[in-house]
Amino acid sequence: DRLDRQERADEDALTDTEGWLAAWEATRTALRQRIESAQEAATRAEQLAERREPARRRLAAARDRDRLGQEAEQARRRALASAERAAEARAHWLDLKEQRLDGIAAELAATLRDGEPCAVCGGTEHPAPARRTAAHVDRAAEEQALAAHQRAEEHRTADERALGTLREALAAAGAEAEDAPTDRLAAEVQEVEAACALARQEASDLHPAREELRRAEQEHEQRVAAQREAAVRVAARVGQRDRLEQERASLERELAEARGDAPSVAARADRLERRAALLTEAADAARTAEESAVRRKEADGRLDEAAFRAGFDTPRAAAAALLDAATHRALQRRLDERHSEEAAVRAVLAEPDTAAAAARPPADLAAAEHTATAAAERLRRAASARDAAQRRCADLERLSARATDAVRRLAPLREEHDRVARLAGLTAGTAADNDRRMRLEAYVLAARLEQVAAAATVRLRRMSSGRYTLVHSDDRAGRGRSGLGLHVVDAWTGRERDTATLSGGETFFASLALALGLADVVTDETGGVRLDTLFIDEGFGSLDDQTLDEVLDVLDSLRERDRSVGIVSHVADLRRRIHAQLEVVKGRSGSVVRRRGGV
Asked: Among the three residues 434, 459, 475, which one is the final residue of a domain in this structure?
């Protein structure tokens, strides 16, 4: 019956396994197709991601292009307005200057005193001094108009610089966007984003598909193994069923033989048990009789032997040798002593401690020996650990002594190192004590820069009509270091500001003043060796007429001291101001140099 149940169970399992294995190829193919589709989607997602970043940059550039186009147009309008205002301010200043020059005689006449010589003709008589008219322009009005003109020029320069910056940014954004419409670029980005999201969603099925394929392959292996095991069990059950059939036939033969002529095996067994009981009783009686005879015979033999050992020939002779009363009393006394001794021993044995000791189980010698061996092993390990600890303590004491000695030797070195490190940090400008974070070389150069600034100020004040003065600054620039800064003091406002706030023309003659100041300092430091020749390349186009006159006056003063000053410029106004010229003329066969004026 058990084999039949197992056979039915194996048949059901085989049927289920065969059905599953029949669909295995289709299942595996579908899973592999899912994996391939997910991998293709992952590759497509990577490709779309690579396309997405350039598309985003182009879209951002297109948006910047649109925004910068509007800002550039606004900046162009502001630049045009600033240029118009600057031109109007310049025309107004020139008009006032011309009016002042026309009425300069009235200003000179106001300074005339009777008997004092005239500054123009030297005469001491002033018969008809000029009179001021209602349209007379004084120096203050002219300077105010000049200041307004300079402010308008600064605004124009700032607006043009801002316009140039916006145009450069607009050109860069246009090149990045490749003149594509923003709407089309936005649609392309949206399309790429959607395709990338869809590809990523499809690629997200890669891991689940692989896991499902792995589980399906494991289940396939398990089912194939279960199929083989079921086949093995089926083959084994065939042999086991044959053996059981043979065993059942053998048992049936044994049962028929055991039953005999009785109706059943139980009846045959009862009959045989009653017969066996009678036979057992008879055998026991015969055995008892035999044993009694043997014991009697053995008793007679022991009696004879005891009588013989006691010195009697026969047992009758021994019985005849009875003890007398005295001997009997002596033996009785000895017997009583033995009884007393036995009673004392029994009393001791009856004590609770003795009874408790007797009630305990006998000692386990093997366990005791094992415990003793384990204790000896623990003792040996403890002794070994103690020896190791003593060695480590000795090593630690030796190392502690060496460490103490090293610390004693290290203290002076550490103090020396700290002193040198503080000095190095101070000179490098990184120490906390150096608030300005100024390096030693910057500190040395700062002293030389102060000399250069002082020497340059002499020239700068002349070029700027006494307005600007260069001063050295130790202030830190942002989070950087200090020591080599330059500020300019504006005499008109009385404030000190950074040189970066100077306009283009102001920056030019400030740089020229610094170059001349450096030449003066070098001359002083090198024992009078002078810088005899100086070339200035461009920069004059950023100067107004008055500033240009003042700069040329300074250069003329250098030339008067036997120094050669060369100017490289394309400013047309310089052609009539400078007589000795080398002009570069372009032609079909190349450029030629032509000399004009004296040298």
From this structure: 434
